[in-house]
Amino acid sequence: MHTVVERDLELKLVLSPERSIPVPARLTFRTQDPYAVHVAFHVGSEFPVHWTFARELLVEGVFRPCGEGDVRIWPSKSDLRNVVFVALTSPDGNALLEVPSAAVATWLERTLRLVPPGTESERLGIDECLAELLAPLPADDLWLSDPWGPDEPQDGAV
Asked: Global pTM?
């Protein structure tokens, strides 16, 4: 059975140290994709902007700075509240988002109860898929049998 954990949040898009604008967003975790966190930002366009990154990155970022490249996350304080900053970089631009720590931590806790760290690979079903791919089929008997038979010469021998 696959489970989805979602949480709607209002993030702040930080434009400058003095100015930010609210951005509605939805955090999504799917047990069939246990390594990933999906975020849909509703920025006033027809379609939301989607980002996907490692759940482990968000878990670590609640406690300490982490990430490099396209996604960087770190804890901080803003207006005496605990927050998590998420910096996103793409060819289309950069964004610095401020997320309430308590809301993210509560949502992450739900995902971690569903799929504890270290058990993600069990959810992927890789062993079952490999077993199915590698299982012999009836036609495989033709390929595995000796095409020469016991009385026929092999390798050009006469």
From this structure: 0.75
